[in-house]
Amino acid sequence: MKILTLLKRVPDTAAKIRVAGDGKRIDPAGVEFVINPYDEIALEQALRVKEAGGGHSVAVLCLGTKDATKEIRTALAMGADEGILLIDGAGERDAAASAAALAAALSEVKPDLILCGWKAVDTDDGAVPHLLAARLGLPCVTLVTKFVLDGTALTLHREVEGAEEVVSVKLPAVVSVQKGLAEPRYTSLKGIMMAKKKTIAEKPGAAAEPKVRILALEPPPERKAGRIVGTGPEAVPALVKALSEEQKLI
Amino acid sequence: MARFKGADFLSIMETQFTEEERMVRDSVREWVEDRVIPVVDRCYQEDRFPLEWKDELAKLGALGPGLVEYGGGDLSHVCRGLIYRELERGDSGLRSFASVMNSLVMFPIRAYGTKAQQDRWLPGMIRGEKVGCFGLTEPDFGSNPGGMLTRAEKVKDGWLLNGTKRWITNGTISDVAIVFAKTAEGIRGFLVEKGTPGFSAPVIRQKWSLRASITSELILEDCLVPEDALLPGTSIGLKAPLTCLSEARYGIAWGAVGVMEACYEEAFDYVMTRRQFEDKPLASHQLVQQRLSTILTETVKAELLVLQVGRLKDLGLANHAHISMAKRNNCEWALDIARTARDMLGASGITYEYRCGRHMMNMESVKTYEGAHDVHHLILGDYITGIPAYS
Ligand SMILES: Cc1cc2nc3c(=O)[nH]c(=O)nc-3n(C[C@H](O)[C@H](O)[C@H](O)COP(=O)(O)OP(=O)(O)OC[C@H]3O[C@@H](n4cnc5c(N)ncnc54)[C@H](O)[C@@H]3O)c2cc1C
After folding, report:
1. Which CATH superfamily is domain B239-385 in?
2. Residue of A70, A121, A193 to mutate for B, most B C-beta atoms under 10 A
3. Which of A36, A112, A153, A192 lies at a CB distance of 3.0 to 4.6 Å from A1, suitable for a disulfide?
4. Could you tell me if A189 lies within 8 Å of chain B, comparing CB atoms?
């Protein structure tokens, strides 16, 4: 089986984000980039399937700039067999435009299973998996927390409001994963050395018109400094007063 | 989680290392931050080396680097150095475990052992299933191992070993000990397996340094080992053990840089936030800035020194004197920096809540073992002048 995982390069969640001069993007200077953590979970799941035997292969597909080679290299070091980088032009990409480029590439690769994170932590849209499945005419199972592959029968557990749903799905399919499915491994040092010998194919990402455009990006308003009303039990009346009269919270 | 980025004042990481080398550093760093730093102070207080670290080190690929035919990764000497630097940023005891396994146990088995000895031990050690130790030092012979009293007598069924080794890292948890002993011809190395009658490895307690590492005695009382326990490639004399030590010292010189980085980070954060006198941060005082400046400068120098030795080693051009220079300089400065950082933290610095005190205590061992500080001056002095001044 040919498994493909999607991989997006995103700013580290701990990075301090500044808005760029154009007011529509973040300034990448000094920001550490990483594999989208949910995509990393998808990759881990793919690698586990491969390592369980059966002659499966794992490819990673990334739509991004040349800089994303670093994240693809990390995926190869973790154990993926090959990487594909769709070089993104200067145009804006919303989820629909991204899905269009990914779908164009995937219709050539024709994987049996497409795994990806349920959202990317930069834009937080969570729309690509559905849009991609729709474009490819494939079933889509989202927010998967348990993955059981028995031959070609795939059973998936997914998170739904207050319950767990168990579904079976016919391959090929798009499966998006949620936290808790599989803890990503540390990149092994041997894997890093082996990644040198693996290939990363580069192709231009297909152009597509975005349906949603970013008009402005603004940092959240700065929070006002906290106020200490006092210490110890004596401060309780002042605190109650502040919460009820000033803040109207109680 | 916000990961430690390091000061990298001269952009050494960005300009002097390859992409793979940076990936090696990042992977070990990530593991140390997640799995070691959150628990190490507790292990230290409990005098305990957590055995799960051994399995996780193996999974990471930090055991048996270079032993490709037995399952190890194809890692350069610079990559190995980066592993030790990150491990020691966690704790010197963790780095000691890896140094002993890689440089003092697997290295001699590979270099001096038979194919059968290699097949028996190396794959399991690389997988983290088997542990080994290196017994050279004795209660009365440390800097001068040539004077050792441990004897190996050739008998009908093999060799009869008698003697005591002391200060042996990993001793109590080892499946096999490499023991150096005097035969009728001179010093040779032997593989002594756990459970051999007449062999025991009691742990040494009451240490206030390297507490998250196991240090032991090896006691050999009429311990009979078979003929094939001899490491046949160990030539007669101290050449073999000294070659192993040179390997380990190289890693220690890198490890010391990890201690410097840890202490710099902690001291810097502390003095930037702690306020004394007119509500100014400690960092606003000249004397404090001088200390930060010294720590940063010495860290950068140590990093460059060991990187150059590593590059030479990868070219096959590093010698024992290069390594002695790096080991002595870097351990001395790591200890000095840890003491300075401890001081900069005031009372907080003496608690386990902060790391510099633990690093400071560890560095007292690291400065002493693998050739004490003074001995490395003598080695370099011997190399420069051609006049040995040891005795
Ligand atoms: C935690 C720990 C773990 C260790 N692990 C191991 C291990 O795994 N295997 C192993 O074999 N050993 C191990 N050692 C032992 C270590 O290598 C020795 O302690 C070291 O070689 C110094 O020997 P010594 O303690 O006998 O000190 P000594 O040799 O007695 O030295 C005492 C002092 O005298 C100085 N000195 C000695 N000779 C001279 C000289 N000629 N001129 C000037 N100054 C001199 C030394 O520099 C030192 O300052 C370990 C030690 C420690 C503390």
Report:
1. Butyryl-CoA Dehydrogenase, subunit A, domain 3 (1.20.140.10)
2. A193
3. A112
4. yes
Give me the residue label for tokens 């990298």: B8
Sign, Cα dihedral of B225, B226, B229, B230: positive
| Across B255-270, average pLDDT | 97
B61–A contact, CB cutoff 8 A: yes
Distance CA B3, CA B267 (A): 17
Q: What's the whole-model pTM score?
A: 0.91
When divided into structural domains, chain A yields a total of 1
Q: What are phi and psi of A154, to 5 degrees?
A: -110, 120
Q: CB-based contacts of B207: which residues, under 8 Å, 6+ apart?
A: B47, B215
**Across A54-72, average pLDDT:** 96
Q: Residue B385 and residue B388: Cα distance in Å, rounded?
A: 8
> Domain spans of chain B?
12-126, 132-229, 239-385
- Please tell me if residue B123 touches chain A, with a CB cutoff of 8 Å: no
Q: Could you tell me the strand order of the sheet in which A140-150 lies?
A: A163-169, A153-160, A140-150, A173-177, A113-117, A2-6, A57-64, A82-87, A200-204
Nearest-CB residue to B61 (from A73, A74, A189): A189
pLDDT given at position A228: 85
Question: Tens digit of pLDDT for each residue in B167-188?
Answer: 999 999 999 999 999 999 999 9
Answer whether B132-229 and B239-385 agree in fold: no
CA B187 to chain centre: 24
B208 lines ligand 1 (CB under 6 A): no
Whether residue B370 lies in the annotated active site = yes
The architecture CATH gives domain B12-126: Orthogonal Bundle (1.10)
CA A83/CA A194 separation, integer angstroms: 14
Amino acid at residue number B263? C
pLDDT at A95: 95
Which class does domain B132-229 fall in? mainly beta
